[in-house]
């Protein structure tokens, strides 16, 4: 393995986390020394001070909205020290699936270094438990065309900024993260064509594939759902050594031509393996006999895809990738043996300065938000909203994520992602999070399993156009269910929201009956296509779970594709 000593990396991580508090103070000092000349910090009267106390008393907590004017100036080409000491070279574009609106986030070399540090750290722990042999990986990764801001800065998704960075490729090679597909496929102009070619490359190198990866679990499930539709066509391509006419992008065709040779033996083998599977169970290890695991972000809004992913994975372990966002990385998975539902992430204390707002359900907090606490002051079992200060001009930035402290690795906390703080279904005193919605859909899904059906995807909204307002749940189902089963699903969804505010409001009819809208097959693919049209890449896409009023295009797609509607009679 070129240049990577996993034991040394683990030792470095152990040393780093022994005195996480001290490392945090040093990290904040470094961030403020490097960026003390920035207009933003100058205006706040920090005057070169670098201690945590001065920093917290001078610098307010902010959201992206508070920084938009500064970020806009940078994007427009103002190269003066606005948020950072050195000019920002690139902007990352968030997917926009959470808020319905894409946003620019500063990206620089320091964030690139943080990314590689996170990847190296989690790889060291992963490789200790599941050592890889020499080979390749099947990666469902996609890059959007790099754009430019008005001022000439690079502008692409967070993943595009990584893939196009020269350090990324060498860094990935060092941790055996080599993709079996050529760059032309990753950077292909059409997602559907790239996906087809990723599958084809995986089959061509099937014996060498060591693991299967995508940024999010959703992309892996989507890839193998697609495989179910196109597997015979893929076998024909391999048999004849000719690429399907569905791939029209010239750069992609030329790259694939170099890999394809007529191989009837391989085609027959794959055909036989696929024909022998029962309902595609264990498809991934059947296709890729030397794969050690499946890797990607599998927590939070990705959890609903785990059941289908496990179906494809058979006995292969699922491993959740690290914890971060478009704004930067936070923590690494150093316990790779834990299943995704129990995954925790240890904060790297030197990649940013982190604070945590305690989230307590008590009357006092309704009027006054508790003061943030430091990285080493958090308590096991408590929930917090995370605050980030990074090397790219975000200071005391509210990420909007709710995390739970599950334990400590030496003195750094191990976090579990709970939900997005603002993704909440609420009409009056009720408060249901994305996780509550997920649990409710899981309960209803059990009724469908009895009918040999499954939930393909789901979303929700609050309808206050009626009086009283009600929750609306959109389900896409894998086949036809009876009226009785769907009515029972509707009642089950309603009953499964156990929040006291919701239950009492339903009983006294200040919240109306829950409405289930079953949508046509392919509706959620239309939502994906909508975001691809806005420039999001598939590997960055997350299905919007709670569609707010600002996200009217997604609301429109959902409402225009309703096949059947049911109203709950549960209360």
Q: Gist?
A:
The protein is an alpha+beta fold. The protein is built from 21 helices and 22 strands.
Description:
The structure is a single chain. With 571 residues, the protein is of the alpha+beta class. Helices cover 40% and strands 20% of the residues. The protein has 21 helices and 22 strands. The strands form five sheets. The chain has an eight-stranded antiparallel β-sheet with strand order 9-10-11-16-15-14-12-13, with helices on both faces. Strands 2-1-5-4 form a four-stranded mixed β-sheet. A hairpin with a 6-residue loop joins strand 19 (455-463) and strand 20. Helix 11 runs parallel beside helix 15 (306-313). The longest helix is centred in the middle third of the chain and has 24 residues, at 217-240. The protein starts with 5 loop residues before the first helix and ends with a strand. Mean pLDDT is 87; it is low at 362-367.
Quick one: biggest sheet? 8 strands, antiparallel
- Helices, by number, come to 21
Overall geometry: globular
The helix content is 25-40%
Radius of gyration: 24 Å
Proportion of strand residues: 15-25%
The largest sheet has its strands arranged as: 9-10-11-16-15-14-12-13
Ranges where pLDDT stays below 50 over 5 or more residues in a row are 362-367
Keywords: Ligase
Domain GH3 middle: 346-420
Family: Belongs to the IAA-amido conjugating enzyme family.
GO molecular function: acid-amino acid ligase activity
Topology:
Elements: H1 6-18, H2 20-35, H3 39-43, H4 52-58, H5 64-75, E1 90-93, E2 104-107, H6 109-129, E3 136-139, E4 147-148, E5 154-157, H7 158-163, H8 166-174, H9 183-186, H10 191-204, E6 209-216, H11 217-240, H12 250-257, H13 264-275, H14 283-287, E7 293-297, H15 306-313, E8 318-320, E9 323-325, E10 328-332, E11 345-347, E12 353-358, H16 363-367, E13 373-374, E14 383-389, E15 397-409, E16 412-420, E17 424-425, E18 432-433, H17 434-449, E19 455-463, E20 470-477, H18 483-496, H19 500-507, E21 515-519, H20 523-533, H21 552-560, E22 562-567
Parallel strand pairs: 1-5, 3-6, 6-7, 7-8, 20-21
Antiparallel strand pairs: 1-2, 4-5, 9-10, 10-11, 11-16, 12-13, 12-14, 14-15, 15-16, 17-18, 19-20, 21-22
Helix pairs in contact: 1-6, 6-8, 10-11, 11-13, 11-15, 17-18, 20-21
